[in-house]
Amino acid sequence: MSDYVHVPGADDLASGSMIEREVNGKTILIARVGDRYLATQGRCPHMGGHLAKGVLAGTMVTCPLHGSQFDLSDGRVIRWTKFTGVALSTAKALRHPRPLVRYDVRVEEGRVLVGPEKPGS
């Protein structure tokens, strides 16, 4: 995504809410935390759950499938799954923990625009 693209519906998000949209062929999660908009990949890197169907607490999103948690502000993994013990070890061995890909967001004239991937994503 080389240019910034208006994301329909993101302009009307209430603080503490999120939506999923297709932007240039990619599934993107847009979340609003206070006056700040955050954009990341929309599918969980663990097992592909739709993050917008999960729970948002501050900047942390919890995937609805296996409880994976990520910080939307920097993409880092907080918890890879809600599993413990051997199940957690197996989950990490099968799919190594990966941070979320993040995208730049601008608000211009009341419109939320998503741009290119942020460095380090």
3D structure, described in words:
There is one protein chain. This protein has 121 residues and is mostly beta strands. The model has no long low-confidence stretch (mean pLDDT 91). The chain has one helix spanning 85-94, and strands at residues 5-6, 17-23, 26-33, 36-41, 55-57, 60-62, 69-71, 77-79, 102-108, 111-117. A hairpin with a 6-residue loop joins strand 6 (60-62) and strand 7 (69-71). The protein has a 6-stranded antiparallel sheet, with no helix packed on it. Helices cover 8% and strands 40% of the residues. The protein starts with a strand and ends with a strand. The protein has one domain (5-112): Rieske [2Fe-2S] iron-sulphur domain (Rieske Iron-sulfur Protein, 3-layer Sandwich), CATH 2.102.10.10.
Brief description of this entry?
The chain has 1 helix and 10 strands, in the order E-E-E-E-E-E-E-E-H-E-E. The protein has 121 residues and is mainly beta. The protein has one domain: Rieske Iron-sulfur Protein (3-layer Sandwich), CATH 2.102.10.
Q: Give the overall shape.
A: elongated
| Strands side by side in the biggest sheet | 1-10-9-4-3-2
The number of distinct structural domains comes to 1
What is the strand tally?
10
Main sheet record = 6 strands, antiparallel
The CATH class is identified as Mainly Beta
Percentage beta strand: 35-45%
List the quaternary state of the chains.
Answer: single chain
CATH superfamily: Rieske [2Fe-2S] iron-sulphur domain
The CATH topology is Rieske Iron-sulfur Protein
